[in-house]
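I have been asked to look over a protein record a colleague put together. Alongside the sequence sits a line of tokens, each denoting a local backbone shape. I have pasted the whole thing underneath without changing anything:
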Amino acid sequence: MNKLQKSLSFLLLYLVFFCTSVVYANSGTTTIVLHDRTSQAEEARAGTNIGVYEVTEYVRQGKKAEEIAGIVRSIPPFSTLTTDKEGLAKIELANRKNNKNTSYLFLATDNKNQHEIIQPILLNLPILDEKGQFLTIFDLYPKHYPLSFPLFFHKHGLSMESNQDLGALSGAVFVLSKQESEEVYLMKSETGALEWTSEFRAEGFQKESLDFSACIGDRENFHSSLAFFVSDNNGRVSTGDYKLPAGTYKFKEIEPPSGYMLEVSSEIVAEIPLDVTKEIMLHLPNKNGEEENVSQEKAIYYNKQRGNLPNTNGVEQKVSRNLLPSTNEIMRAGWCLVGTVLVGVFFLVRRKGK
């Protein structure tokens, strides 16, 4: 009996010690080491900012990472990590809070001018290894979302008389701009590289003081280094291989399809959001001239047919590149002047003869 009591006592002490150890480990901390590398070249990415949010209650409500990210994105995180030159960032997190296992969300911030972003990461603590042991250090290798996208919309004709949608228009020419310290325009590239310039006028343009609106009407008025986006047979205008990071961009039409007018003041404002769960939206006038915000799939930009009456709001003829009379016009004017002089000489001689 004494032996049995001793054995039970030892077993009880062991269980108390074991359970205390488990509770202590479970109520401790875990050091998270985040590794940020580019998805293509596997190179370390320095300077990535990641907000860390304690989201235990949201997880207990059954919410997923993307849903939680949408809720907390506008809330300041309790801690912010920044990756070093080796692409590393560390943080020590509590495994338990208020007698509950904890959950954390890692959410990348400051995404402008980046072409990919760390996906939201939901991490539940504590973490056990394959042997059931609690980990005190955990390495995190996040995946990435693409954060650069092509922009697109559709081009349609509009009846002058009935305001009826006439369907897809091909041949409309656009340039793309954004605002930095000044407005800059996307330059053409065979690889889709994003390079920008403030010089939009064609080489040798005679009126350097002319603003952008004075040049529209003919793409020949614009610098040949610019990227031109032309509507195809389906009326689609797309940046194609030029994939753009989060930010605000403007499409400006510089040459209308034949037989259609160009609205000088109209432009298409495209907004690529920082939040990858949100749609890209375009701000543009509808066929009634009312400004609206629509998704890319629904965006249609209209040109009205040319009418017989003068149009003060639009451009009906191409603007000459040098804004000087053509050679034929000069010759016609010269011959008219010569004819006038000869007629005058004829009547003068006739008068003297009398």
